Amino acid sequence: MRFDVAIVGAGPAGLAAAVNAAESGLTVVLVDAGTQPGGQFWRHPDEAAAAAAGTTVGESDGHHDWKRFADLRARLYALEDKGAVEYWRNTQVWLIEPGTSATTLRLTPTVAHDSHAPEVVTARHIILCPGGYDRQLPIPGWDLPGVMAAGGVQALLKGNRTAAGTVAVVGGTGPFLLPVATGLATAGVKVAAICEANSPTGWLKNLRGAVQAPEKGPEGLEYAAALAKHRIPYRVRTAVTAIHGNDKVEAVTIAKLAADGSVLPGTGRRVPCDLVALGWGFTAQLELVLAAGAETAVDVDDSLIAVVDERLRSSVPGVSVAGEATGVGGAAMAVVEGELAALCVAAEAGQSSAGNATLGGRIAKLQRNRERLRAFAVAMHRANPVPARWHSWLTPETVVCRCEEVSYGSLCDAHTELGAQDARSLKSFARPGMGWCQGRVCGFATASIAADFAGCPTSADDLRSMAKRTLAAPVTLGQLAALTPAIPTPCNPDEGL
Amino acid sequence: MPEIQLSLDGMPLPARPGQTVGAALTDAGISAWRTTRNEGRPRGLFCGIGICFDCLLVVDGVPNQRACLTPVRDGMTLDTGCAPGGPETPTQGGGAA
């Protein structure tokens, strides 16, 4: 099957890209791992179950900007009904192969049995909208059941109406901790503390960027009111520095941080809880960007991101990137980028029902909007950095790589005894990032630890060596075997050996 | 909403239609259903969105399924596979340096 555009991801960026590309007259396929549109930000209860029960009331509970989503979703479903968009749910891309005139995507179901998508699709243009997930720092005890990524706690609430515990501590840095904490409190969970490693005064240093997005002001006030209503203590310059329990979480130690992020001696205290939600900003999902061979760079938040031009084209012809993968910036910015990427592809294809002059004007407006939202995102990142000395909270026994159960001590040994100087050699010698998740969870931390050993800032090379994955999703050996004939061979078999 | 029934290692597990397996287990007060290969440590939901593969279990006989992404279905059988040889054999291999 061949399309003008294939869009990967049906979150804010991908939805906006798909709807705008199709409305511009391009043939579109939308591939998404989820069972329904929305991505992580607009995750909501199962639409089919709600319809069967005769109620969609409360669908938007805990959401911001739901109207924007409802509009995009309605347009997507209408386009799907009239055959203008092929929308393949429960489908992951496991391999991307850019070619001269088209790019091939190889597909696999997210959940066994439930996908109706073919195994291969090609398109002249690809718009990658893979989104992101919570960035994690290892903490002693973070591998205990009851410790979750803040986004996972939120996903249970927004998608399932399930609270993952009864007494919670929410910790890390960044504004995302607030909706997680207030979401839990609304669901009846006692939130014993929000531990924000930075201080809100960080905003003052970045006022120029912050005032570029005045719409964020009321959102902040809303959270302040919710914290007061639920009596949630908001502790700044404070971190969860250890998690306690035998087979599940029983308590955490929270401590005050010095300006460099090290623990202020004597400030630690124990807080009982059965749920810990952790998030240190976000990591962009870059496996498809890297697999396509596109250029990447380190952003102001130390995340590895795709390098794109003002039309959101990556360094690989025919591959554009939109949303968090171009720099973490939130849903509003992702929607702008999705539309921008789609309209630029439409303009390039000379295909738009709106006419090229109108299209050019719209593109310019979206580019200005993107600049404005990017300034806000940069201000936010500068106010919420990962504490420089976070490594000092670790003990030799602290698990860094959850999959391969690689401890901080064994990384130290790989450095001091085996001479590992960068993330790549740490990975070779001690195996962090080589298990099931392929470094998605420990990649940032391992790169940061490598940089700490080397006494320099986290480098793009360290991040890249933890983010490159041969396959973007696990597949069966059968799928790999079936691929063999399609892989271009280095020599022409007709010429013999 | 009417409940549906799943089984977990042969024991009944109630769920609400539209939930994920991970949510149904959490609602039942179960926070771990897998042990790690080396240290035998308990694991359940961590990332909750399909990234970390901590929550793997056997669904209707298919190993290595992510509980956080798998929608519940009436009559679904779940196995924790905590026994040796359980769900801990990645097909995507290691050395993607």
Task: Please explain how this structure is put together.
The complex is a heterodimer of chains A (497) and B (97). By secondary structure, chain A is α/β, with parallel strands linked by helices. Helix content of chain A is 34%, strand content 21%. In chain A, strands 1, 2, 3, 4, 5, 6 and 19 form a 7-stranded mixed sheet that branches. Chain A has a 5-stranded parallel sheet with strand order 8-15-9-10-11. The longest helix of chain A is centred in the last third of the chain and has 28 residues, at 356-383. Chain A is globular. Chain B is mainly beta and 97 residues long. Chain B has one domain (4-82): 2Fe-2S iron-sulphur cluster binding domain, sarcosine oxidase, alpha subunit, N-terminal domain (Ubiquitin-like (UB roll)), CATH 3.10.20. Chain B is globular and about 40 Å long. At the A-B interface, helix 2, strand 8, helix 4 and helix 12 of A face helix 1, strand 4 and strand 6 of B.
Summarize the structure.
The complex is a heterodimer of chains A (497) and B (97). Chain A has helices at 12-23, 47-52, 66-81, 150-160, 177-186, 207-210, 216-229, 287-291, 331-348, 356-383, 408-416, 423-430, 443-454, 460-467, 477-483, and strands spanning 2-8, 28-31, 85-88, 91-98, 103-109, 120-128, 132-134, 147-149, 167-173, 190-196, 234-236, 238-244, 251-256, 269-272, 275-280, 282-284, 296-298, 304-306, 319-321, 399-401, 406-407.
